[in-house]
Amino acid sequence: MANNNRLRTVYAFAREMYPKTVKTDIQYGTAGFRTRATDLAYVMYRMGLLAVLRARYKKAVVGVMITASHNPEPDNGVKLVDPHGEMLEQSWEKLATRIANVADSKLQDALNDIIKEYNIENMNDRAEIVVGKDTRPSSPSLSKAVTDGILAMGGKPIDYGIVTTPQLHYFVMCKNTNRAYGQPTEEGYYRKLINAFKKVRGDSFTNGNYTNRVMYDGANGVGAKKVKYLKEALGGSLIVDMYNDEIIGSGKLNYLCGADFVKSHQSFPTGVPKEANARCCSVDGDADRLVYYYLDDNGKFHLLDGDRIATLIAAYLKEILLKTGIDLNLGLVQTAYANGASTEYITKELKVPVACVSTGVKHLHHKAQEFDIGVYFEANGHGTVVFRPEAKTRLREAFQANNLSPDQKEATERLLNVIDIINETVGDAISDMLLVETILHSKGWDVREWEAAYTDYPNRLMKVVVTDRNVITTADAERTCVTPEGLQNEIDGLVAKYRSARAFVRPSGTENIVRVYAEAATREETDKLAAEVARKVYDMAGGCGAPPEVPQ
Ligand code: 16G
Ligand code: MG
Asked: Do 306-434+447-451 and 459-540 show the same overall fold?
């Protein structure tokens, strides 16, 4: 009975304040719902409702983040965060899609179905929902819609205001581990990361060719806003020169800058001074991606993307692990987008096992959890390291027991501190930057020495517009195209014409297009291969508009 009253209130709110304004269906994609902000109020309200059901079902705190990451300012989006700070479980993505798309008059029934299906009995629990938002001008009103949904369902919203996506994931994890993971406050977050960073760095801020200054492109978003606090707390240990930190609503969010721009255009962002060989980095609009880059003496742009960060971290962890003498396994997880040269370097030189999974953080995160220490990164700069809880316990116990040599003890202590620099819940640009800076400092490397580990194969990404991207299906972590029938054969035939070549196609999870990736020995061959594959996709998978041009 109480339930029915509750759901009637939910419906009344929906009808009066957040009516469904869009007829076409929206889909909970790789990173939640993302579209024009003006079309999202009812979706936000409904996600507030669903978050409370999820929290009651899991008997834990869950999170809601309002952001559209690297999309332009008029867009916004929402994603739900599970109790361990992970992305929402896949089976609930379907429920999210269903709840977002039902007519207002069917909302009550749809919610009731979930309550029954999942046997959610504790409908009076004031489940806590942690809410955060990025700096978009549309975020405050959308956040209000989420909060109204939470309240209508009888939950308790905890509003963290403007935070980065990874900060929100961290807060959720802290709350559900009874603060064992850290204090669930922004201050607690900075304190944890920076204390560990300073401990590892010690008193000498420079080392060899490493200088303690980095040029930081904040994408005019939350990543810029937050680094201001970080800068102060870092003191002289790391000097972060900040660029692209325009105020909210300037329209410049992600515009010609930020990690996604730098990676996909493979070019230097606007707003950062062009200084030869200076180490620069960019974050994206919600600060969960990071890429590094520099301009050489001739002004040529060099990118150090997620693959480079991953190899740097894996090599470093392998080295310390060896010094600790503690037997833990280490593995690295990539996607098909990882440059072939990075995979060869990791397997052949570093001798670290590599797994390849489908695009999307949740796939990488889960695979990484199969290792004692799992490093994962997408080439686009999203990644982190996850440690199995038993592995952490073993390190702590070994450190406390008195049977380690001084060198082993030093290495174990260092590794324990490094764990605290890392945000294990999800890729975190701020934490990843502190980790990269820690490693470069420890090696005494400048950015060119870091880059010297291996040489990337030239690669090319292309988009093909098709009527329905779902005609393309893939297998083997997106490296084989299953349908349309015959397309993979054609791709194989094209790839065989070139040296050291590789190509694959997959439907995007965020746009209605098919993505094409190609790699080959030279730039010319790569561009040709990419265009030829794109043309095949266009011909065989229902391309629209002008066909891709193939260079002769
Ligand atoms: C989302 C994913 C990212 C992935 C990208 C691929 C999360 C949090 N984010 O941004 O991991 O690389 O989508 O986009 O999972 P695409 O499917 O359009 O290529
Ligand atoms: Mg992002």
From this structure: no
Query: What is the strand order of the sheet 290-295 is part of?
Result: 239-243, 213-217, 280-283, 290-295, 301-304
* Centre of ligand 1 from the C-alpha of residue 358, in Å: 10
Rounded mean pLDDT, 269-286: 97
Q: What is the pLDDT of residue 157?
A: 98
Assigned CATH topology for domain 459-540 = TATA-Binding Protein (3.30.310)
Q: Which CATH architecture has domain 2-162?
A: 3-Layer(aba) Sandwich (3.40)
Q: How confident is the model at residue 1 (pLDDT cuts 50, 70, 90)?
A: very low
Ligand 1, atom 9, residue with closest C-alpha: 31
Query: Ligand 1 pocket test: which of 65, 86, 510, 511 has the largest number of ligand atoms within 8 Å of its C-beta?
Result: 510
| 286 Cα to the center of ligand 2, angstroms | 5
pLDDT band at 369 (very low <50, low <70, confident <90, very high): very high
Q: Specify whether 69 is catalytic.
A: yes
Domain ranges of the chain: 2-162, 188-301, 306-434+447-451, 459-540
CATH no. of 188-301: 3.40.120.10
Q: What is the residue with the minimal CA distance to atom 4 of ligand 1?
A: 360
Ligand nearest to the CA of 463: 1
| Cα 474 to middle of ligand 1, angstroms | 16
Residues with CB under 6 A from ligand 1: 30-31, 359-361, 378, 380, 382, 508-511, 515
Pair 308, 450: CB distance under 8 Å: yes
Architecture label for domain 306-434+447-451: 3-Layer(aba) Sandwich (3.40)
| Predicted confidence band of residue 2 (pLDDT cuts 50, 70, 90) | low
The number of CA neighbours under 13 Å toward the Cβ of 385 is 30
3-state SS string over 49-102?
HHHHHHHHHHCCCEEEEECCCCCCCCEEEEEEECCCCCECCHHHHHHHHHHHHC
